[in-house]
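Batch job 17 of 40 flagged for manual review because the log was empty.
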Amino acid sequence: MDGLVMLTSIEKRMQELVDEVESLPKSDVNEVRKNKEKQRRLLLREKKLAMELHRQEERARRALERSNANRFKKVGRKLVYRSEPLKSRETAKVSTDRVTKTESQIFLEKE
């Protein structure tokens, strides 16, 4: 079959079904739609619960693997972080002392 022929046959069948649905009483159509929607939501809820159960089982399995795994004990003392002393303050003090000394020397030399 040619693609165009297939599309026209599908289109024709869809139009027949739409006409048939429009000829049915509205209350029956609405009731069927509600039931289909309810089934769809129920199926979705069941899938969601199954996924949650699978996720919980996977978490429990990983926790069991961690608990059964060989534990290793840390040997030796813990290392403590030591910060390096600030060098910028020391250099600042030294530089200000030099400046004051030179100023005082200049003052004494003037007298």
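Reviewer: the log was empty due to a logging misconfiguration, but the result itself is present. The mean pLDDT is 85. Unflagging and moving on to job 18.
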